[in-house]
Amino acid sequence: MDAKVLIESFAEFARSKNVDRPTMIRILEDVFRAMIRKKFENDENFDVTINADQGDLEIFRIREIVDDNSEDIWDLDKISFAEARKIEPDFEIGEEVYEKIELEAFGRRAVQMARQTLIQRIKDLEKDILYSKYEELVGEIVSAEVYQILGREILLMDGDGNELILPKAEQISKDRFRKGDTVKAIVHRVDMSNGNPKIILSRTSPIFLERLFENEVPEVYDGLITIIKIVREPGERAKVAVESYDDRIDPVGACVGMKGSRIHAVVRELQNENIDVINFTENLDLYVTRALSPAKVSSITANEETKRISVFLKPDQVSLAIGKGGYNIKLASRLIGYEIDVFRELNESEEEDVDLREFVDEIDSWIIDELKKTGLDTAKSVLSLTKEDLTRRTELEEETVDEIFRILGQEFDQ
Fold first, then answer.
1. Domain 137-202: what homologous superfamily?
2. Fewer CB within 10 Å, N or C, the chain?
3. Which of 377, 341, 334 has the alpha carbon at shortest distance from 356?
4. Preceding omega of 294 cis (within 30 degrees of 0)
5. Which of 198-202, 226-230, 358-362 comes out lowest in average pLDDT?
6. What is d(CA 355, CA 362) in angstroms, rounded to the nearest whole number?
């Protein structure tokens, strides 16, 4: 393989990978200089000129002519007077000899290795470019097409044919994709695995929801409305605290849109995830009240040292505060940064009920705490539920739930 064929084939391959000309020339020179060092030990006295467009390569070895008896005659950048005269009869001592080195002088095996090295360098460069590209896109939305569905992840292809990964853990539980579907997600992170960039996407990250709001709500994109915090149970429920520094803008109304037009687009993308948009406030009591919406709170007691809040509600509001699967109260707690304990306001007919703390000798305190977190603070409030509801709401084991019902039931049997 001559230099022209080698360079032209490399240049064509490099252009197909969108490698710019200066980078292409630099890689070619690096590889040829590596060949020179392998054959001649040093490349400092060599001049390499490459014209990638024409496929031209010129390698010149530059040496200074010294006397045949000189001590420097063995230096790599020196040549004896007698040897120089064989190249050109009229050379004189002290002059420089420019000796052209043909590619064939390196040997067929070295040239083949150079070709493989050039291709590998481009592939490595392509990986670096891909890594840098997606490293800058971390936290941004991308669209890609599903091309393979595996048990633990979905493989997608972007517009340039790069592989992206959407792990099962980063998918919304209701997501159902088929080959050829276009998927929106954010770039969650970019890892390097055995020298290959691994691009991980996410649809469960709060940042994904934030980017969707930016796309659908111009005031958020322009910075007129600020998203203070987002908490999610992906595919089920989310709470978004927003604030506007312009009194003329209603941040909640702007995010929801006329007849819900803006938020509906976000909800559809998130597989009908229920999204509560809340107006942020520094007033803790008001913030808690808004966070627990649609439940109506009667009174609130906060303990800043323990980061716990006791919320009192009428009996018919407790289930609203807790929400389906306990999501409403869990998300409200995460949004405000306090643990919320829900208590029912007792009316006269409930005075004969028994507080769960009275059973601390028979029921472990951590179990009572779990029950209170979901608004179950009395024996009758627990017994009003079915065993299946209690298991689902608290995630306690069935045996534990059975024991709770037995202990509480005995109290009223007596």
1. Nucleic acid-binding proteins (2.40.50.140)
2. C
3. 377
4. yes
5. 358-362
6. 13
